[in-house]
Automatic annotation (TrEMBL):
Belongs to the leucine-binding protein family. InterPro entries: Leu-bd, Peripla_BP_I. This is ABC-type branched-subunit amino acid transport system substrate-binding protein. It comes from the Bacteria. Residues 1-24 form the signal peptide. Keywords: Lipoprotein, Signal. Residues 47-389 form the Leucine-binding protein domain.
């Protein structure tokens, strides 16, 4: 059974959602261009307009900026190469600052005028409009969120392993490296809501399979000081800690643990790191025994895909640093672009045409280490995760310590 948006977010969204569009879902406004290509919302004779709902001022500000700029770079490169379906690609960006009312208001504002969304940061916010997207709007949304609660929609498609699967792979790494063993306690610090609670499902399953005990510490996105959580986990005698939160919470957790002599490995989900953290007081502790999982190679990896993107991004944004948001944003835009090309070939450059086109991508490799299968909306596009460790010498601050793989427990896990 899917978890829904947490009550506090639901309450905050109620007034905004009342004003949702009541347009018909039959796409009766679809047209046909001179080449016989059927077009609809967000598509003119010269332009394909896509939306980007991001966070550049809230808890994921550094991630949001990198994701957005990477997608703008993709659009610029795509247009320089001739565009898609004889049209230029335009991105319309809104910063919601990880505020629920602003996020849903921005979606409501942009939805009538875009073909779909190349990003939407915030699992709870995406979940809040998922039913509307599925039954009414039907524009493809590629969220920068990995909650399994978003699976099952033909129009909201997660790129990569979901948080539960990713967390299973994280715990498998700790087991494989003999940092934890059967009978041990493992702490899990997690955001309330879709992200953290979905990750908790994964840690609980992994614990059940390996004979571990999970010690929970639930926090809010506004909680930045992890002193109380470290104290509780230290007292409980945990041998390792999983963190499913933001970069600030991860830095506080690792920094406080080091300062108090709590010497255990800490491993986080893909959004629990930013390279800027390495220049803070928590930097030495992060470099020592902190790890991150992700369904892409890091931007600093020497493989051809990341190396090429790092060079191009640095040339476009010379004053900005590199981080994994660059890879995440560019990957999502590339997937969207491939679906647009397939839709054009099928002469259906409409919302439903793009959705159908995505279903045909069964072995898509965007050049960042993992092949994705989008044919089943109810399944993650992959169950593989690469495990990375902070490295001050690597562009973007991360290096791979275990190549992308799916743990046996991740393969056997039933995503719900």
């Amino acid at each position: 059974m899917k978890l829904r948006v947490i009550p506090a977010v639901c309450a905050a969204l109620t007034l905004t959602l009342v004003g949702c569009s009541g347009k018909a879902a039959d796409n009766s406004g679809d047209k046909q261009d001179k080449s016989g290509v059927k077009t609809g919302e967000g598509v003119s004779a010269s332009t394909i307009t896509l939306g980007a709902l991001t966070d550049m001022t809230g808890v994921y500000a550094s991630l949001g900026k990198s994701v957005t700029q990477a997608q703008q770079l993709w659009a610029k490169q795509t247009n320089a190469a001739g565009g898609i379906c004889d049209r230029k690609v335009a991105l319309t960006v809104r910063d919601h600052g990880y505020d629920p009312q602003k996020a849903i208001a921005a979606y409501t504002e942009l939805e009538p005028d875009v073909l779909g969304f190349t990003q939407f940061i915030g699992s709870p916010f995406v979940a809040a409009v998922e039913q509307r997207i599925d039954t009414q709007d039907k524009g493809l949304v590629l969220p920068q969120a990995w909650s399994a609660n978003l699976l099952g929609s033909e129009y909201v498609r997660v790129i990569g392993a979901t948080y539960d699967v990713e967390t299973i792979n994280m715990i498998d790494y700790l087991l494989a490296e003999k940092r934890i063993a059967e009978g041990d306690k493992v702490g899990h610090v997690y955001f309330e809501g879709d992200y953290g609670e979905n990750a908790l499902t994964g840690s609980e399953y992994a614990a059940e399979q390996a004979g571990l005990t999970i010690v929970e510490q639930k926090i809010k996105p506004t909680d930045n000081d992890m002193t109380a959580q470290v104290s509780a986990l230290k007292q409980a005698g945990v041998k390792a800690v999983v963190i499913s939160a933001g970069p600030r919470q991860a830095a506080s957790l690792v920094g406080v643990a080091a300062a108090t002599g709590f010497d255990v490995p800490v491993i986080g989900n893909n959004s629990a790191f930013a390279p800027q953290l390495l220049k803070t007081q928590a930097g030495p502790a992060l470099l020592k025994d902190y790890y991150i999982a992700s369904s892409t190679l890091p931007i600093g990896d020497p493989a051809a895909g990341p190396a090429k993107l790092a060079k191009e991004y640095a040339a476009q944004y010379p004053k900005d640093g590199l981080d994994n948001g660059v890879v995440a944003g560019y990957s999502a835009a590339s997937v969207y672009g491939e679906a647009l090309k397939k839709a054009c070939e099928a002469k259906e450059l409409t919302r439903e045409g793009v959705d159908k086109a995505l279903l045909t991508l069964t072995a898509y490799d965007h050049g960042f280490g993992i092949t994705h299968d989008f044919s089943d909306p109810a399944a993650p596009s992959t169950r593989q995760s690469a495990i990375m460790k902070p490295d001050a010498a690597a562009p973007g601050g991360l290096k791979v310590v275990r190549p992308a793989a799916a743990a046996p427990a991740a393969e056997s896990f039933t995503v719900k």
